[in-house]
Amino acid sequence: MTGPILHDDVNRNPSPSRRTVLRGAALTLATAATTAATCRTASADGPAVDHPGAQWLPADPANYRTAWRPRSHPIGRVVIHVTQEHFDDAIAVFQDPGRKTSAHYVVRSADGHIGQCVREKDIAWHTGDPDHDNRSIGITHEGWVNASARFTEEMYAASATLVEAVCARYAIPLDRTHILGHHEVPGATHTDPGANWNWDHYLELVRAVRTKR
């Protein structure tokens, strides 16, 4: 099974539309900078977001644990997920109190739009391991692990900007030890983000955002 969510939808894999096809193997720094500026200046929908430009799409309180991080629990990792669902359906799962799952952020495939579902101070239930949940930020990306075209440059760039900002807030190193996939969590039964997630490209973008600070 894959992703932090949606266990009964793992086998669905619709063909991606042409507009979501990757524009190339590399994204120029100019594109990354433009995306970063958009995230910083866009109007947030609601007062609760931690990332400028994110839309507040709150998870049901039954799907996460209220805390006061980093005072209550230090934050030292970012965990990358894939939804195995469409953006709106992933949000609906997090808002269903019976699902007992959530992530802090959801990143949309087509344009990199970011929804925040859980405050960073609170503990989202996204890894299946309580210790990792307590000490991490969960970011899930709209798509399917076996559909590489869903991992668009817009998504990579917006997610890289988000991850760099999270890591800066909590002094998290920008490396694969601290920015990890769901499959790397001890005891994980999920495979996301999968072989189609371009880790080298993604971390290059994250570090490029840092150099522009």
Shape: globular
Rounded to an integer in angstroms, the radius of gyration calculated over CA atoms is 15 Å
Tell me the helix content: 25-40%
How would a crystallographer describe the biggest sheet? Answer: 6 strands, mixed
Strand order of the biggest β-sheet? 1-5-4-7-3-8
- Number of helical stretches of at least 4 residues: 5
Order of helices and strands: HEEEHEEEHEHEH
Distance between the termini: 38 Å
Give the total of beta strands. Answer: 8
* Percent of residues in beta strands: 5-15%
Q: Structural class of the helices, strands and pairings?
A: alpha/beta
Mean pLDDT: 84
Compose a concise summary of this entry.
By secondary structure, the protein is of the alpha/beta class. The chain is built from 5 helices and 8 strands; from the N terminus they run H-E-E-E-H-E-E-E-H-E-H-E-H. The strands form 2 sheets. A 6-stranded mixed β-sheet has the order 1-5-4-7-3-8, with helices on both faces. Strands 2-6 form a two-stranded antiparallel ribbon.
